[in-house]
Amino acid sequence: MDAALVGQGLLSGLLFGGVYSLMAVGLTLIFGVMRVVNFAHGDMMVWGMYLAWMLATRLGVDPYVGFIVCAAVLFLVGLGVQRTLVDRIVDAPHEMQILLMLGVALVLENAALVAFGPDPQRVRSPLTGSTLWLGPLFVDVGRLLTFGVAVVLTAALYLFLARTRLGRSVRAAADNASGALVIGIDVRRVYAVAFGIGAACVGAAGALVSPILPFQPAGGLSLSVASFNIVIIGGMGSLLGAFVGGLLVSVAESLGAVFLAPSMKELVSFSLLIAILLFRPAGLFGKGGA
Amino acid sequence: MRWAAAGALAVLLVLPAVLGSYAVTVFIFIFFYAFLGQAWNIIGGYAGQLSVGHAAFVGLGAYTSAMLSIHAGLTPWLGMLVGGVLSAALGAVMGYLGFRFGLRGFYFVLLTVAFAEIFRVIALNSDWVGGAQGLYITFTGDPRQFQFQDNRVYYYVSLGLMLLATGVVAWIERHRFGAYLVAIREDENACEALGVDTFRYKMLAIVVSAFLTGVGGTFYAFYLFSLQPNSVFGIPLSVEIVIRPIVGGSGTLLGPILGSFILSPLAELSRTWFSQGGWTGVHLIVYGALLIGVVLFLPQGAYPALRRLVRKADG
């Protein structure tokens, strides 16, 4: 096996991992705060991609700028979904929550199908064509930018949770919802904000990935499943776990594509998932048992 | 109750004599999905272990009997059992991984989804099972090869499958095994504290459920005559299997049947209706909205609500 090829696989995996991390951070935030698994996560991301596509084709906004708009719109969507639907089932059994979110996923996916048709789309950005050379390895400028923005957004989210008053109340509600209620935190508002931020993460992630990956309405489910994998591998509810897990899974998939076949890359992440479930069900950065 | 069931069965038995061929097709879908839903009901409804990966069993059963028929000339009547046994073995592996660590709720759901996806990716990439093209079965119309000229035979075969699974569930419901499963669903910790080997019963439940679902795979293959990894192992099929018992009332004997009588005609008619108007996808929006509505307003499903209504009418 050619060392340069492996190095290239490692590098492009790492760069793509930024998007995976951002997806997983959004999912783990929602789960950590509400204990609700957002099965519509991937479909929300697909809507982020189509929003970026509309901004680019109708208004000429580059997705590397448009991602801010996509994040804002998805924040509102998440807020709306939380307020109207999720809020009613926060205390319901797991199955009921999962079924509700599956329903939301079906509606979002097929609304995209009706609106945009089944054919794959791609957003053109002048930045994606150019490459940089790092010795024997080349770096796609688009991917580098996607990675950079995704990492900055994750870091900003971390700072928000650690430093701001609202962020602290989000963490408090995640740790102990009734305790947070007792000390006067409006937990319902915190839930809505957390769901909104989780959705905004995939809104941004979708826009950032739209110039480098073709997308179609049917892709949402596999993006959801990929996010679940990463979050379980990293440890449910752990932001650091989601971030590292995203990079890890992406690198593993990229190397899998080099060593096996490109279409087999999903197999690598599923094998990783099963290994984690077997040996460390709490995930790499999780606390305690599953 | 018994008389009502006998009467309904008698009607279903003579119905093909008066139905047109499209109506027969709709009934075949009703029975087949009721059968799959009933098989799912054992682990998902009674034991309360939500599997969203039952497509893995359908696909494994379907591919097994199709491959055995195409390459070894084995009749699907036997291939059906081989597929069922392999699916049961897969169910045992999934159950072992999931239950040994007490993975509950979301983790188990994900494990089942992941398994179905693994099979989908493998089938897509394995040329010896046809890869992305899938498998095609040449139609001979030979009943020994599970192929029938007359659509009405499929009607009776699918009706038989539905009755078989319902019989199995009725048996489980009346025995200690069923009581254990319900106890596990309601409070697994309490159940363990009382000395019930919950691992064993959950394993048994998933194995029986997987076996039946795997048998159903053969019907799928030899009714549609083509198998594509994305449709037979895909998450949408798993959702189709889950949604009927939930809408009808999961963990009840008649829930999956009721759910299928509600949803299958709706799915079939809305699919043809909306696709003719070029609105592919609309019927799935209806599905999604229905799922949301059931969770919010009828969390127990339609069957318990219907029963309350009947009781009220009785006085």
Number of helices of chain B: 14
State the secondary-structure class of chain A: mainly alpha
Using the coordinates above, name the CATH class of chain A: Mainly Alpha
Uncertain segments of chain A of ≥5 residues (pLDDT<50)?
none
| Element-level helix/strand string of chain A | HHHHEEHHHHHHH
Estimate the helix proportion of chain B, in percent: over 70%
Radius of gyration of chain B, CA atoms, in whole angstroms: 19 Å
Gap from first CA to last CA of chain B:
17 Å
Q: Give the N-terminus to C-terminus distance of chain A in angstroms.
A: 39 Å
Arithmetic mean pLDDT of chain A: 87
The helix-strand sequence of chain B is HHHHHEHHHHEHHHHH
Oligomer: heterodimer
Put simply, the count of helices of chain A is 11
Low-confidence stretches of chain B: none
Largest interface comes to: A-B, 45 and 43 residues
Largest sheet of chain A: 2 strands, antiparallel
Task: Give a quick set of tags describing it.
A: 290 residues, mainly alpha, ABC transporter involved in vitamin B12 uptake, BtuC, two-stranded antiparallel ribbon, 2 strands, B: 315 residues, 76% helix
How does this structure look, described?
The complex is a heterodimer of chains A (290) and B (315). In chain A, 72% of the residues lie in helices and 3% in strands. Chain A has 290 residues and is mainly alpha-helical. Chain A has a two-stranded antiparallel sheet. In chain A, strand 1 (131-134) and strand 2 form a beta hairpin. In chain A, helix 2 (41-59) packs across helix 8 and helix 3 (63-84) runs antiparallel to helix 8 (187-209). The longest helix of chain A is centred in the first third of the chain and has 32 residues, at 3-34. Chain B is mostly helical and 315 residues long. Chain B has a domain at 19-233. Chain B has 14 helices and 2 strands; from the N terminus they run H-H-H-H-H-E-H-H-H-H-E-H-H-H-H-H. The two termini of chain B are 17 Å apart. The chains are: A mainly alpha (290), B mainly alpha (315). Chains A and B meet through helix 4, helix 9 and helix 11 of A and helix 5, helix 11 and helix 13 of B.
